[in-house]
Amino acid sequence: MRADSWEFLGYAVKQLAAATSRSGGGRAPRELPQEVRRLLPLLESLEMYWASPGPQYVTELRRSLETGEYLEALSLIEPVARRVAGHDQHAPEPSPDTEHEADRIEEPADARKRFEVLVIDDVSNVDREALQAELLNQRRPADAFNYELVFVPSFEDAIVAVLLNPDIQACVLRPGFVLNSRQRLGRDMRGFLDGFLGPSLPERPLDRILSLAEKLGQLRPELDLYLVAGVGIEELAGSLTRQFRRIFRRQDGLELHLSLLAGVAERYEAPFFHAVQQYSRKPAGVFHALPVSRGGSVIHSKWISDLGEFYGLNLLLAETSATSGGLDSLLDPHGSLKQAQKLAARAFGAQKSLFVTNGTSTANKIVHQSILAPGDVVLVDRNCHKSHHYALMLAGAQVSYLDAYPLNDFSFYGAVPLESIKRMLLEYRRAGRLHEVKMLALTNCTFDGIVYDVERVMEECLAIKPDLVFLWDEAWFAFAGFHHIYRRRTAMASARSLEKSFADPAYARRYAQQLRDLGAAGGAAGAADGLDSVSDELLLKTRLLPDPSRARLRVYSTQSTHKTLTSLRQGSMIHIHDQDFGQLNEESFREAYMTHTSTSPNYQILASLDMGRRQVEFEGYELVQRQADLAVSIAQAVARHPLLKKYFRVLGTRDLIPAQYRETRRQMPLRDGLAAMSEAWERDEFVVDPSRLTLHIGLTGVDGDTFKHDYLMDKYGIQVNKTSRNSVLFMTNIGTSRSAVAYLVEVLVKLAETFEDEQSGLSGLGKRARIARVAALTSTPPPLPDFSRFAERFRKDAETPDGNMRAAYFESYKAGSCEYFSGAELARKVAAAEEMVSASFVTPYPPGFPVLVPGQVITEEILAFMSALDTREIHGFNAELGFRVLTGKISKPDGT
Predict the structure, then answer these.
(1) Helices 34-46 and 55-66: crossing angle, nearest 10°?
(2) Which terminus, N or C, of the chain has the lesser number of Cβ atoms within 10 Å?
(3) Measured distance CA(266)–CA(269) in Å, rounded
(4) 204-to-56, 159, 175, 838 alpha-carbon distances in Å
(5) Torsion sign over Cα 518, 520, 523, 527
(6) Is 201 helix (H, G, I), strand (E, B) or coil?
(7) What's the sign of the alpha-carbon dihedral 683, 685, 690, 695?
(8) Residues in CB range of 379: below 8 A, 6 or more apart
(9) Rounded distance, CA 349 to CA 610, Å?
């Protein structure tokens, strides 16, 4: 809005200037055009929350416009419009001092990184200018960064400022601020503030300061907070050190200035990237086994010198297998890499973070192997990434699959309902095997954008199984920790929130009250056995609280940094919040990490992970908000354009999440504002990530795979990750631009016009064929198959569903143990009640998860689903030979 407002104002004033010039240079009428009168007050409101150009600049602009100095006004607007739009980031700061405008433009640009500091205090203009002069006079040429000050008078304005202005990197609180904004806030902003701040704000000065610090930390935890007080700072220091980086007296201007720079410098540090950078600049003699190092085998080659020309010399200079000279070892870090991982833990809110250079597939295998021993039971979403299935097979775990709710109309799954998870845990409790259940592994968010209420899932599961370990596969959700609404549904933020809750005496009282209530409602709950004696039916209906004295938070998150943040391909991270890590898992985790991590990691990937962390600590909030907003703009374009909505529809919350899992009812919450999105993400069991757009294309008569390859990629270069038979998934990310969004909309319009032209030219037979194609893509196909069961010989008992995939997998290695059958042959055998057991993983793309795993019984439903697939790619299935099936017959070496 801010960028567009400056740009539109520039257009309007340029027209005014042109009209004045045509009329001979006379002054225009005193009444400004309606567009100018609309935009000026909007910019006056917005610029209150930015240091540059700031509200005084807009006041000067208004004076120029009202006096008819349109060319002067245009000279004020254009540099700001360029800078706000991101076209001129290194230009000098706009200033309202127009008398020396020509001299100012000639000044060299300041190449130092720039940020803004929010000062929260209700002060007069004189005091404001004095404070600004005091701090800005401390600046020296040697300073690594440059900053400007933004002043707001109230608690509410401080919240608005950090929401609107991503350039703010530090906040200075002074006790004189008031509670309420004098601004006329819009309905959405007022609705968000009311929900976020609660019914009333604290009146006592100290409580007010603490509350504001807490709220700022919830919105943007990366911000450095400073308190400037007049008296008694020694008494305040002990109680405020958690909230504030430092506390100052009003007279300590130099120390505050230095602290502001030091705080930003800490986040700016990228120790491993800098180590690689420094290494590339040093002369070296290479006598190790890496010919490409320093470009040795490339630069002087007669045949592959174009490799160096394409990738650049720096890439080759930075290639090495050395771990000394500041570079460090991934397998045993003690220097720059260890420090980089500590900074990542801070940024992502983890106790410990580790870098992985071969993707989240490997990260998942590391976590599974570190936690699980053969025989341990794992509850896992059958719809999870194939790396989990292979990891569980390797670990020898007893796998108990959970079924996500199906979205049959669109041929993919949603997520696993909490009730299903609780029911499975209670099933093991009834069978006397709950002690064998070790871990719950779920994908958050799913490929299609379904997001769990992570905190609630962990809280209720820990009420049944207090030592349950959680693995959240956040491969597609690494960005979520850097936006206040997304963050609440991440693994690390939820673990911290629960840890804080469990330490609160009020939580223990709530738990004790729940025990009494459940006992009164028909259970036999008591202090000794907790919820152990409460009936399953009652536990399923109750939102459970765990015993805070028994629950242990053991939470792991794996993230594909390269998928949703800045990193080279295969750059991933593991984040850990495990209260028992040192006691129970440190050694096994180290061994698992050694097992799966290359001894020759790619240093370029590691350096990019370090820089990706730096980026999101400074601009993650802005980039994540932008990616969500851009996705909403695409959805709105599809919904409003008369031709687009004839062939396409963006699926929303009501399409992707059944009503029983939602309290709110909005189709696309962010479209209705941050307050609406915040409400849904606070209350609903599942929500949809607004940056994922599932475009239903059934009315085009083209299936998803063909639409992706033949129309989007081959014809227009539009790249997408996933399709189903009648949908295409578009994802915006932190690198998506407004131009890219405009191009996508333009391409969709061209495709819609193509379909329109094709349809108008069809003959009778052609029309009937097209109607049949559309009917096939818009009708419900064979339902997605739930997990059937493991064959009896791979199960521990008949009461619980877990099976040993490893035993089934390695049985297929034995000679004579497998045969191939076509789908038709299998269908006949299954219809005749023969038990046919899969010998391998069978994974069609789409939907991208194993329809069959080793040891699973093949059913009619699975075969019907497979026969209806029209996908080009099915891993583990031989199109010529058919399905590989365990026969139960094993040949001895002599052939018998």
Answers:
(1) 160
(2) C
(3) 5
(4) 32, 19, 10, 68
(5) positive
(6) coil
(7) negative
(8) 400, 402, 421, 424, 425, 437, 439, 440, 441
(9) 15
Q: Could you tell me which residues are beta bridge partners of residue 249?
A: 229
pLDDT at 527 over 70: no
How would residue 115 be classed by pLDDT, with cut points 50, 70 and 90?
very high
Q: Which residues pair with 173 in a beta bridge?
A: 120, 227
Of 861, 845, 784, the closest CA to residue 404 belongs to 784
Q: Which H or E run contains 266? A: helix 253-268
Give rounded-to-5 percent helix, strand, coil for the chain.
50, 15, 35
- Contact partners, residue 848, CB within 8 Å, separation at least 6: 386, 447, 722
Contact 838, 855 (CB under 8 A): yes
**β-bridge partners, 378:** 399, 439
**649-650/377-381 β-pairing:** unpaired
Q: Say how far apart CA 81 and CA 104 lie, in whole Å.
A: 17
Is residue 220 within 8 A of residue 484, CB to CB? The reply is yes
Edge-to-edge strands, sheet with 837-838: 818-821, 883-886, 837-838
- Could you tell me if 729 and 722 are in contact, meaning their C-beta atoms sit under 8 angstroms apart? yes
Residue-wise over 217-245: b if at least 16 C-beta within 10 A, else e? bebbbbbbbbbbbeeebeebeeebeebbb
Tokens, residue 414: 């949603």
Token couple for 379: 């509850």
Q: At 196, list the tokens.
A: 């976020």
CB 75 within 8 A of CB 98: yes
Chain position carrying tokens 């020396």: 100
In angstroms, the CA 573 to CA 560 distance is 7
Distance (Å, whole) CA 64 – CA 82: 20
pLDDT average, residue stretch 134-139: 90
Look up residue 333 and give its two tokens. 């870090």
Count of Cβ atoms closer than 10 Å to residue 519 Cβ? 14
Q: What is the pLDDT of residues 367-400, one digit of tens each?
A: 999 999 999 999 999 999 999 999 999 999 999 9
Question: Which residue type does 843 have?
Answer: T
Shortest CA distance to 404 belongs to which of 390, 391, 421? 421
Output the six-digit token pair for 651: 């699926």
Instruction: Give 286-341 pLDDT, tens digit per residue.
Output: 777 788 888 889 988 999 999 999 999 899 888 888 777 788 999 999 999 999 99
In this structure, what is the dihedral angle of CA atoms 121, 122, 127, 131, given to the nearest 10 degrees? Answer: 10
- Tokens 């071969």 belong to 358
Winning range, highest mean pLDDT, from 244-253, 276-285, 493-502, 760-769: 493-502
Secondary structure, 3-state, 799-829: CCCCEEHHHHHHHCCCCCCEEEECHHHHHHH
Determine the pLDDT at residue 526: 64
Q: Where is 248: in which H helix or E strand?
A: strand 246-249
Q: Which residue is associated with the tokens 């750059």? A: 571
Residue with the larger pLDDT of the pair 626 and 250: 626
From residue 266, give the alpha-carbon distance in Å to each of 73, 224, 271. Answer: 40, 10, 10
Is residue 717's pLDDT more than 80? Answer: yes
CB atoms within 10 A of CB 432: 11
Instruction: Output the average pLDDT for the chain.
Output: 91
Q: Please tell me the pTM assigned to this model.
A: 0.93
Please name which of 807, 828, 61, 848 lies closest in space to residue 395, comparing C-alpha atoms.
Answer: 807
Taking a C-beta distance cutoff of 8 angstroms, is the pair 803, 795 a contact?
Answer: yes
Structure tokens at 482: 């850097």
Q: Quick one: CA dihedral 673, 677, 678, 684, positive or negative?
A: positive
Strands 883-886 and 572-578: unpaired
Contact assessment for residue 432 and residue 369, using Cβ atoms and an 8 Å cutoff: no
Under a CB-based contact definition with an 8 Å cutoff, are residues 601 and 587 in contact?
no
- Tokens coding 638: 């599809």
